Protein backbone atom coordinates (compact mmCIF):
# COMPACT_ATOMS: atom_id res chain seq x y z
CA UNK A 1 0.00 0.00 0.00
CA UNK A 2 1.16 3.50 -0.78
CA UNK A 3 1.90 5.31 2.41
CA UNK A 4 3.94 7.74 4.49
CA UNK A 5 6.48 6.13 6.79
CA UNK A 6 8.28 7.81 9.63
CA UNK A 7 11.35 6.49 11.38
CA UNK A 8 12.03 5.98 14.14
CA UNK A 9 8.73 5.64 15.92
CA UNK A 10 10.29 6.73 19.20
CA UNK A 11 13.51 8.67 19.70
CA UNK A 12 15.24 9.73 22.88
CA UNK A 13 18.08 12.20 22.53
CA UNK A 14 20.26 14.16 24.90
CA UNK A 15 19.97 17.88 25.37
CA UNK A 16 22.08 19.57 22.71
CA UNK A 17 22.82 16.42 20.70
CA UNK A 18 21.79 16.73 17.03
CA UNK A 19 19.00 14.43 15.94
CA UNK A 20 17.48 13.57 12.56
CA UNK A 21 13.98 12.30 11.95
CA UNK A 22 13.10 10.58 8.70
CA UNK A 23 10.01 10.53 6.50
CA UNK A 24 9.50 8.59 3.30
CA UNK A 25 6.53 8.31 0.96
CA UNK A 26 5.47 6.01 -1.84
CA UNK A 27 2.63 8.27 -3.01
CA UNK A 28 4.83 10.33 -5.35
CA UNK A 29 3.34 13.47 -3.84
CA UNK A 30 4.96 16.79 -4.63
CA UNK A 31 4.55 18.32 -1.19
CA UNK A 32 5.94 17.13 2.12
CA UNK A 33 5.21 18.83 5.44
CA UNK A 34 6.59 18.65 8.96
CA UNK A 35 4.31 19.39 11.91
CA UNK A 36 5.27 19.61 15.58
CA UNK A 37 2.73 18.56 18.19
CA UNK A 38 3.50 19.16 21.83
CA UNK A 39 1.64 17.31 24.55
CA UNK A 40 -2.09 18.12 24.65
CA UNK A 41 -1.76 20.65 21.86
CA UNK A 42 -2.75 20.85 18.22
CA UNK A 43 -0.17 20.14 15.51
CA UNK A 44 1.71 23.18 14.27
CA UNK A 45 3.33 23.46 10.86
CA UNK A 46 7.11 23.91 10.90
CA UNK A 47 7.86 23.95 7.16
CA UNK A 48 7.11 22.26 3.88
CA UNK A 49 8.75 21.34 0.60
CA UNK A 50 7.02 21.76 -2.72
CA UNK A 51 9.22 19.60 -4.88
CA UNK A 52 12.67 21.05 -4.07
CA UNK A 53 11.39 24.44 -2.93
CA UNK A 54 11.67 24.87 0.82
CA UNK A 55 9.18 27.05 2.70
CA UNK A 56 9.84 27.84 6.34
CA UNK A 57 7.11 29.10 8.66
CA UNK A 58 7.95 32.51 10.10
CA UNK A 59 7.97 31.31 13.71
CA UNK A 60 9.92 28.09 13.20
CA UNK A 61 13.11 28.26 15.28
CA UNK A 62 16.45 28.28 13.42
CA UNK A 63 17.33 25.14 15.34
CA UNK A 64 15.00 23.22 13.02
CA UNK A 65 16.08 22.45 9.49
CA UNK A 66 14.96 20.13 6.75
CA UNK A 67 16.35 18.32 3.74
CA UNK A 68 14.63 16.68 0.81
CA UNK A 69 17.20 14.81 -1.25
CA UNK A 70 14.59 13.31 -3.58
CA UNK A 71 10.82 13.05 -4.04
CA UNK A 72 10.47 10.14 -1.65
CA UNK A 73 12.44 11.29 1.38
CA UNK A 74 12.35 14.27 3.70
CA UNK A 75 14.37 14.73 6.89
CA UNK A 76 13.89 16.93 9.92
CA UNK A 77 17.15 17.95 11.60
CA UNK A 78 17.23 19.48 15.05
CA UNK A 79 20.69 20.93 15.51
CA UNK A 80 20.72 21.41 19.27
CA UNK A 81 17.58 19.98 20.84
CA UNK A 82 16.26 21.61 23.96
CA UNK A 83 13.88 20.16 26.53
CA UNK A 84 11.10 22.20 24.92
CA UNK A 85 11.50 20.29 21.67
CA UNK A 86 10.06 17.17 23.25
CA UNK A 87 7.04 16.51 21.06
CA UNK A 88 5.42 14.32 18.44
CA UNK A 89 6.71 15.15 14.96
CA UNK A 90 4.30 14.40 12.16
CA UNK A 91 5.18 14.19 8.49
CA UNK A 92 2.45 14.67 5.90
CA UNK A 93 2.22 14.73 2.13
CA UNK A 94 -0.14 16.13 -0.45
CA UNK A 95 -0.29 15.96 -4.21
CA UNK A 96 0.05 19.73 -4.54
CA UNK A 97 -0.68 22.96 -2.71
CA UNK A 98 -3.99 23.69 -4.46
CA UNK A 99 -6.13 20.58 -4.61
CA UNK A 100 -7.79 20.86 -1.24
CA UNK A 101 -8.57 17.67 0.53
CA UNK A 102 -7.20 15.29 -2.04
CA UNK A 103 -4.78 12.72 -0.75
CA UNK A 104 -3.50 14.60 2.28
CA UNK A 105 -1.75 11.83 4.19
CA UNK A 106 0.01 11.74 7.55
CA UNK A 107 2.67 9.34 8.73
CA UNK A 108 2.47 7.62 12.10
CA UNK A 109 4.71 10.20 13.73
CA UNK A 110 7.97 10.15 15.67
CA UNK A 111 7.70 10.75 19.38
CA UNK A 112 10.86 12.63 20.36
CA UNK A 113 11.96 12.97 23.96
CA UNK A 114 14.86 15.27 24.87
CA UNK A 115 16.53 14.43 28.19
CA UNK B 1 -6.95 35.72 10.66
CA UNK B 2 -8.17 32.19 10.19
CA UNK B 3 -9.53 30.51 13.26
CA UNK B 4 -10.76 27.01 14.08
CA UNK B 5 -12.66 26.57 17.33
CA UNK B 6 -13.48 23.34 19.09
CA UNK B 7 -15.31 24.21 22.29
CA UNK B 8 -15.53 20.73 23.80
CA UNK B 9 -12.23 19.71 25.41
CA UNK B 10 -13.74 16.39 26.46
CA UNK B 11 -16.81 14.34 25.62
CA UNK B 12 -18.25 11.09 26.92
CA UNK B 13 -20.62 8.83 25.01
CA UNK B 14 -22.02 5.40 25.65
CA UNK B 15 -21.23 2.59 23.28
CA UNK B 16 -23.67 2.35 20.36
CA UNK B 17 -24.89 5.91 20.87
CA UNK B 18 -24.30 8.75 18.41
CA UNK B 19 -22.12 11.72 19.33
CA UNK B 20 -21.58 15.15 17.77
CA UNK B 21 -18.25 16.93 18.01
CA UNK B 22 -18.42 20.66 17.39
CA UNK B 23 -16.22 22.74 15.12
CA UNK B 24 -16.66 26.35 14.05
CA UNK B 25 -14.36 28.23 11.74
CA UNK B 26 -13.60 31.59 10.29
CA UNK B 27 -11.85 32.15 6.98
CA UNK B 28 -11.47 34.86 4.37
CA UNK B 29 -11.53 32.41 1.47
CA UNK B 30 -14.63 31.80 -0.64
CA UNK B 31 -13.47 28.32 -1.49
CA UNK B 32 -12.16 26.22 1.36
CA UNK B 33 -12.22 22.79 2.87
CA UNK B 34 -12.54 21.20 6.27
CA UNK B 35 -10.92 18.04 7.54
CA UNK B 36 -11.62 15.90 10.55
CA UNK B 37 -8.84 13.73 11.94
CA UNK B 38 -8.74 11.11 14.68
CA UNK B 39 -5.64 10.77 16.81
CA UNK B 40 -5.51 7.74 19.13
CA UNK B 41 -3.07 7.60 22.03
CA UNK B 42 -0.49 5.97 19.73
CA UNK B 43 -0.19 9.34 17.98
CA UNK B 44 -0.88 8.77 14.31
CA UNK B 45 -3.23 11.21 12.61
CA UNK B 46 -6.01 9.30 10.88
CA UNK B 47 -8.07 11.01 8.18
CA UNK B 48 -11.82 10.64 8.75
CA UNK B 49 -13.72 12.95 6.45
CA UNK B 50 -13.40 16.02 4.23
CA UNK B 51 -15.96 18.66 3.21
CA UNK B 52 -15.42 21.24 0.48
CA UNK B 53 -17.21 24.54 0.85
CA UNK B 54 -18.95 24.13 -2.53
CA UNK B 55 -19.99 20.55 -1.97
CA UNK B 56 -23.77 20.52 -2.03
CA UNK B 57 -24.17 17.37 0.01
CA UNK B 58 -22.87 16.84 3.52
CA UNK B 59 -19.92 14.46 3.45
CA UNK B 60 -20.33 10.94 4.81
CA UNK B 61 -17.80 8.16 5.30
CA UNK B 62 -19.20 5.04 6.93
CA UNK B 63 -20.16 5.92 10.51
CA UNK B 64 -18.82 9.45 10.14
CA UNK B 65 -20.82 12.32 8.73
CA UNK B 66 -20.38 16.04 8.63
CA UNK B 67 -23.14 18.41 9.63
CA UNK B 68 -21.93 21.32 7.51
CA UNK B 69 -23.75 24.64 8.01
CA UNK B 70 -21.98 27.21 5.89
CA UNK B 71 -24.03 30.19 7.06
CA UNK B 72 -23.19 29.38 10.66
CA UNK B 73 -19.59 28.50 9.75
CA UNK B 74 -19.83 25.21 11.51
CA UNK B 75 -18.71 21.73 10.48
CA UNK B 76 -19.69 19.32 13.22
CA UNK B 77 -18.62 15.68 13.09
CA UNK B 78 -21.28 13.10 13.84
CA UNK B 79 -20.18 9.61 14.81
CA UNK B 80 -23.00 7.09 14.76
CA UNK B 81 -23.08 3.84 16.73
CA UNK B 82 -20.00 4.66 18.83
CA UNK B 83 -17.49 1.91 19.47
CA UNK B 84 -14.87 1.57 22.20
CA UNK B 85 -12.21 2.01 19.52
CA UNK B 86 -13.53 5.48 18.79
CA UNK B 87 -11.98 6.73 22.04
CA UNK B 88 -9.36 9.21 20.83
CA UNK B 89 -8.61 12.89 20.28
CA UNK B 90 -10.48 14.43 17.35
CA UNK B 91 -9.21 17.45 15.45
CA UNK B 92 -10.95 19.73 13.03
CA UNK B 93 -8.58 21.37 10.54
CA UNK B 94 -8.63 23.57 7.47
CA UNK B 95 -6.12 24.82 4.94
CA UNK B 96 -4.76 28.28 5.44
CA UNK B 97 -6.44 31.11 3.46
CA UNK B 98 -4.95 32.06 0.10
CA UNK B 99 -4.12 35.57 1.35
CA UNK B 100 -1.89 34.23 4.12
CA UNK B 101 -0.04 31.66 2.10
CA UNK B 102 -2.80 29.33 1.12
CA UNK B 103 -2.15 25.86 -0.02
CA UNK B 104 -2.68 22.73 1.95
CA UNK B 105 -0.99 24.04 5.08
CA UNK B 106 -3.38 23.02 7.80
CA UNK B 107 -4.52 24.96 10.82
CA UNK B 108 -5.92 22.73 13.53
CA UNK B 109 -8.44 23.30 16.26
CA UNK B 110 -7.50 22.47 19.85
CA UNK B 111 -9.18 19.08 19.67
CA UNK B 112 -11.86 17.16 21.54
CA UNK B 113 -10.96 14.11 23.63
CA UNK B 114 -13.73 11.54 23.15
CA UNK B 115 -14.22 8.69 25.59
CA UNK B 116 -16.60 5.88 24.69
CA UNK B 117 -17.97 4.01 27.70
CA UNK B 118 -19.70 0.64 28.05
Topology:
The complex is a heterodimer of chains A (115) and B (118).
Chain A: E1 4-7, E2 10-13, E3 19-25, E4 31-37, E5 44-50, E6 53-56, E7 64-67, E8 73-78, E9 87-94, E10 105-106, E11 110-114
Parallel strand pairs in A: 2-11
Antiparallel strand pairs in A: 1-3, 3-8, 4-5, 4-9, 5-6, 7-8, 9-10, 9-11
Chain B: E1 3-5, E2 10-14, E3 19-21, E4 24-26, E5 33-39, E6 46-52, E7 60-61, E8 64-69, E9 74-79, E10 88-95, E11 106-108, E12 112-117
Parallel strand pairs in B: 2-12
Antiparallel strand pairs in B: 1-4, 3-9, 5-6, 5-10, 7-8, 8-9, 10-11, 10-12
Summary, kept brief:
The complex is a heterodimer of chains A (115) and B (118). Chain A is mainly beta. In chain A, 0% of the residues lie in helices and 50% in strands.
Low-confidence stretches of chain A: none
**Secondary-structure element order of chain B, N to C:** EEEEEEEEEEEE
Range of helix content of chain B: under 10%
User: Beta fraction of the residues of chain A?
Assistant: over 45%
- How many distinct helices of chain B? 0
Percent of residues of chain A in helical segments?
under 10%
Q: Give the strand tally of chain A.
A: 11
The largest inter-chain interface, given as chain pair and residues per side, is: A-B, 26 and 24 residues
Name the quaternary structure: heterodimer
Largest sheet of chain A: 7 strands, mixed
Order of helices and strands of chain A: EEEEEEEEEEE
Strand content of chain B: over 45%
Amino acid sequence: DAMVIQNPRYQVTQFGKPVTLSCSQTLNHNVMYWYQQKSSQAPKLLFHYYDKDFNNEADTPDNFQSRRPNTSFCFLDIRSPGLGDTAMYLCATSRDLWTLGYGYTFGSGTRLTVV
Amino acid sequence: AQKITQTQPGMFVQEKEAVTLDCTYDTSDQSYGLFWYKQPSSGEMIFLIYQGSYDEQNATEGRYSLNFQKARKSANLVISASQLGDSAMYFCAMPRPILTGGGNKLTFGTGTQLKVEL
